[in-house]
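Record pair follows.
FIRST:
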Amino acid sequence: MKRKLFVFIFSLFALTVAATAQEPAYMINGERVTIEQVINLSSDSIEMIEVVKNAEALDDFEKRYGFRPACITKITAKSVDGEDEVFLMVDEMPQFMGGDLTTFRNWVMENVRYPEEAMNKGIEGMVLVRFCIDKDGYIKENMTGIIKSPDKSLSDEVLRVLKSSPQWVPGKQKGKNVIVQFTLPVNFKLINSANMTFTFDDDQSVNGVERIEVVSFGK
C-alpha cells in the first residue's frame, strides 16, 4: 500500500511539474506536511486521498501558507484500531518532563549508546524513527517503526531507548486527549580520537526536527 501511495504521489508530482513551475502541496488531517511525511505515513492509517485543484481551495491555501500550489493532495488519516485518529499537529502538543520534543531529544541523547557491534564494524549513519504518544501519554509500541536505518544494531538501540521513555503529558485536540505522531532523526557518527576536531553537516534537521548526534570516539 505504501509503495502504491508513493507511486500515486510521485505521478501527481510529475504531472504538475510538467504543467507548471508551481509545486504541489500535501495535507494530512487539515495540516500541511512534506512529501516525505506522506510517503512515510502508515498505510493502515490512510482513509481517503483527495486531489484538489479548484481556485477557491488554492486561494485559501495561499492566504494561510503564503504560496499558491499547483494542486493540494489532501489525506484523511485514521488510527490502526479504526477509532482513534492520529494527528501530526494538535491544539496542545504532548509535553515531556515539563518540556516539548526538544526536551525529549535531550533525554534520548543522554540515554542512547553507540552499539559495540556497530563500532567494531565501522557502521555509522542516520536512524529515522516514527513514534506516537497515545491518549495516556505513553509511546505506543505497535505504532513505532523505523523509517530508515543503516544497520539493525542502530535501530534496536533507538527502539530500546524509546521503549524506556517515561510517561508524557498527552496531546489534546478540542479539549480531548488524542494520539500524536512524531518523527525523530538519530545520527550515529564515528570519530577517530587522534583528531578530536570534527564538524557536522550544515543541515542537521529532518522535517524541521533537529537530529540527535550520537558520537563514538574510537582509538
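SECOND:
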Amino acid sequence: MMWNSARAWGYVAHDPFDGLVLPKRGLVQTVTFSLDEINRILDSASEPFRTFYAILAETGIRGGEICALRVTVPATIRTYPRFPSPSQSSRII
C-alpha cells in the first residue's frame, strides 16, 4: 500500500487508517424491467423523456452519462453520418 511505503520511508509518522472500521454493506437490490414493461414505459412517456428512456434502455448507460450527451444539428444536410473525432471533449448524437 502506498501509505505503508510512505511511513517506511519516513515521510509520515502515523497511519490515518489505523482503527478505521468500515460499515457493513448489505445486499444491493437492483430493479430490472422486462421487455413488456420497457415498451409500456416508452409508450406512455412524452418527448423528450421518451427518447431519454429509449437511449437508456438500448445502451444501458447511466442517467448522468446521458445527461452529458450533446445534440447538435448540422448546418447543412449531408448524405453521410458525421462522427466526432476522438479529440473532441463531448459526445455528439
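COMMENT: Residues 29-72+84-93 form one domain.
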